[in-house]
Specification:
Elements lengths: L2 E8 L17 H6 L9 H16 L3 H4 E7 L8 E8 L5 E7 L2 E10 L35 E10 L1 H12 L4 H4 L7 H5 L2 H6 L8 E9 L7 E15 L2 E11 L5 E12 L4
Antiparallel strand pairs: 1-3, 2-5, 2-7, 3-4, 4-5, 6-8, 7-10, 8-9, 9-10
InterPro entries: HotDog_dom_sf
Protein name: MaoC family dehydratase
Organism: Tepidiforma flava
Length: 271
Amino acid sequence: MTARAVRRLTAFLDGEDRPDIPNPIHSTAVAHAHGFAGPLVGGVTVYGWLVPSILELLGDGWLSGGWADVRFRRPVYPGDELEAVAEGPPGGPAALRMAKAEGAAIEGEAGLGRAPWLADLTLPSDRQPVPPHEPLPELTLETAPRGRDLPAMAVALSLEDARAWALEKQRDGHERWTGPAALAHPSWLAARATPLLKHSYAYGPSIHTRSQIQHLAPARAGQQFTVAGRVVDAFDDRGHHTAVLDVAIIDAAGTLVTHLRHTTIFLIRPR
């Protein structure tokens, strides 16, 4: 028996042209300069729009003992009409698809328990948060610290911040994200990789291409997390300079709540 959870929505992106935008690929001018039709909606935001469909199919147990592997196939622009689909047998695994008129924006899988690729992920040994480097060195293929830990960082997530993330970036007011026992939204957890890399290096417009995410324990808001990681690889992919990071998110009690692998283009191929 196959079940299918479908959610339809219109893509949005607030504040894309503000001067302090962290990743300028989400701004109109920079996106146009790289050949895109408009500002790109962030990959982790679009992944987050899949979460209600995943939870409908797999249940809330996925948030503390489930996984997802999502590949970003096409850019999503504000105003795109999207269909978020999770499909599979009850209890998973589920095939994931974020569809738009031109084809799939995201393709992937999700399931309960341990991911089949979890053993491939590395855990950093450096988990002591430190302030960011000043000044930040430029990230290049030559300076990328392949096989080495990045300096860890401390990240506080208050209940108010968790609610704001869910309401503003996801437009999802479910009590699991906004109530007195709010959890960190899965898209917030997936979004910790980029700030970790920018904690140690400077780089320009970037494009997120894949996330492999393993949830291991509830990530409750209202506490300080440690985000630690390691640069697994950095390479030239047809002119795109790409980095692969393994990231551990650890709660205030020292529990590993999320282990993920993040792949990003940190230098976009010139037009």
